[in-house]
Amino acid sequence: MKKFNQIKKLIFLPILAILLNSCASIKEYEKVNINDPDMELSQRQICRFETNFQLYREGSSGANGGKVGGGCGCN
Amino acid sequence: MKKIILLFLLFISGLVFSQDTKNDKAYKKRVLESIEVDFLTSYYNQEGSNASVTGGIGNEDLEDINPTIVISIPLNDDDIITIDLGISTYTSASSSNGNPFDSEDNSYRTASPWYASSGASKVDEWKSLNIDYSNSSEDRNTVITANVSSATEWDYESFGFGGGITKLFNNKNSSVTLSTKIYLDKWIPVYPKELDAFIDAGGNSISGFFNNRTVYNQQGIISSNWSPLTDFKLIDNKSRNTYSVSFLFSQILNKNTQFAFFIDLIKQEGWLANPLQRVYFSDRDNFYIGNPSSISFYTSKLNKDVFHLADDIERLPSTRIKVPVGIRFNYFLNENLTLRSYYRYYSDDWKINSHTLNLELPIKLSDNFTFYPSYRFYSQSKSKYFESYDKHISSSKYYTSDYDLSKFNSNQLGFGLKYVDIFTKLKVWEIGLKSVDLNYSNYKRNSDFKSNIVSMGLKFVID
Q1: What residues of chain A lie within 8 A of the CB of B5, using their CB?
Q2: Contact state of A71 with B38 under an 8 Å Cβ cutoff
Q3: Cα pseudo-dihedral B198, B204, B209, B214, rounded to 10
Q4: If B407 and its partner were Cys, which of A12, B92, B253, B382 is the partner (CB 3.0–4.6 Å)?
Q5: How far is B426 from A19, CA to CA, in rounded Å?
Q6: Residue-level pLDDT at B437
Q7: What SS3 class is residue B15?
Q8: Does residue B145 carry a pLDDT above 90?
């Protein structure tokens, strides 16, 4: 039950953020900062090797837009 | 939980179809201007004292070098194909202890969990090939992807395929991605030598491999009573398949802030344990090969010449359901500073729950150089099938002494430096250097495990 509540919170937080902000529309010419390469919503390419060893050395994986397990004899 | 996820998906799909699209056909930019080639490489090393090949104790030393090349080719204005080829070469002290005897001229010298059997560590390779294809629509509001992958290792083969669709809406302020990936993997099983030999000899622990080798009991007295667990058998199902569905929602919150929400639903089935990993039971007598005078300090690093014969291999359920949920939140603080943050909560039906927090603070030192300090915290509970060395009970159905499934937390500190030249001034013929990336991370568990990784990347653009 505790785990369910934690997941519930994790799902509702982004929904709340969307509700509060989804109508805000930033124009293309206003996205200078958003388009900065460091603002990308993914891990940096050079960090792929770290993610790979974490996949082997930790019991969990996924939810980062990358590997979810499988493809190797890893966890 | 299913209802919540369903409601969430309905809500998002409602947003997709309700947003204003009048500015969508503004300007069509080529998705990728020219061919890009990335040369990436990493050097990784680790130290620890809980090797799973030797049942949860022993030397975990491992080194890995992983050169990779990634080539992205624009097929036309809309389509890109990316080829990702990597070879990972590693030396592992514990892998060589699959066979506790030296395999060549010194075949009667015995190893210990702390001392690799062949003297030198075992060298192996992992080779992988991924091919990704993506197509962007005319208005750049829809991206369709497809991919295939293949990987081989000395004891493992993998074939994967998948695809996905991304929809951008709300003037490209929001996006939704739905993707799937399937891996059809297969073990080429390698077993602990004594167990393999026991089966080869028809369940006889005196002849064959054990001929002229002396087995001792816990008191150091010669014994012929060793045998694996009753009904011991090798693995009957070599497949290990993974099916995943991933959902991603991203949203620009204002001119300086955006976030992404990730959720994966992953099902694995097949042989999910590693057949090379030994397990020892506390309710069975212990038997050894090698120097009987070292038995009394078997778990000490001083033990160089006695080896505990396995009771069984690791055994785990044939299915596993994983549900990781992640949020990435990036904030552009000012022209010199950006905050990149990531949090993940993970849960599976083997009772592993984990929290991951990652913070990165890119600091722009100049137009060309950026410094990347980073910190990562990770904490997990133990799998219900995990127990440490010689603590399992033989009546259990499933068991592992793999410390990657134990309870621990870890801290990782890192820093990187990136040089970027968007004009690619440094050119040789038609090839221009676009960026150079360097990264270092130090990883420490609260148990006895630590590792270091150095990565380097060079990006070239071919005009």
Answers
A1: 11
A2: no
A3: 110
A4: B382
A5: 47
A6: 97
A7: helix
A8: yes
Rounded to an integer, what distance in angstroms lies between the CA atom of residue B299 and that of residue B389? Answer: 9
Instruction: Using alpha carbons, select from B113, B121, B95 the residue that is nearest to residue B305.
Output: B113
Under a CB-based contact definition with an 8 Å cutoff, are residues B248 and B262 in contact?
A: yes
Contacts of B455 in chain A (CB under 8 A): 46-47, 49-50
φ and ψ at residue A7, rounded to 5 degrees: -65, -40
Q: In whole angstroms, what separates CA B240 from the centre of its chain?
A: 15
Extents of the domains making up chain A: 2-57
Q: Is the pTM of this model over 0.90?
A: no
The answer to whether B250 touches B257, Cβ cutoff 8 Å, is: no
Reported as a pLDDT band with limits 50, 70 and 90, residue B6 is very low
How far apart (Å, rounded) are the C-alpha atoms in residues B80 and B96? 42
Q: How far is the C-alpha of B445 from the C-alpha of B65, rounded, in Å?
A: 22
Interface-testing mutation among B28, B84, B259, with chain A (most A C-beta atoms within 10 A): B259
**Contact (Cβ atoms closer than 8 angstroms) between residue B268 and residue A69:** yes
Contact with chain A for residue B362, Cβ under 8 A:
yes
ipTM above threshold 0.90: no
In the structure encoding, which two tokens stand for residue B4, read together? 């919540």
**How do residues B294-332 score in pLDDT, each as one tens digit?**
999 999 999 988 999 999 999 999 999 999 999 999 999
User: How many CB atoms are closer than 10 A to CB B229?
Assistant: 16
Assign domain B2-462 one CATH number from 2.40.160, 2.60.40, 1.10.3470, 2.20.25: 2.40.160
Residue of B nearest to A30 (CA): B255
Q: B350 vs A3, A75, B145, B242, B262, CA distance in Å?
A: 14, 12, 32, 16, 21
Q: Which residues of A touch B340 (CB under 8 A)?
A: 38-39
Q: What is the pLDDT of residue B211?
A: 75
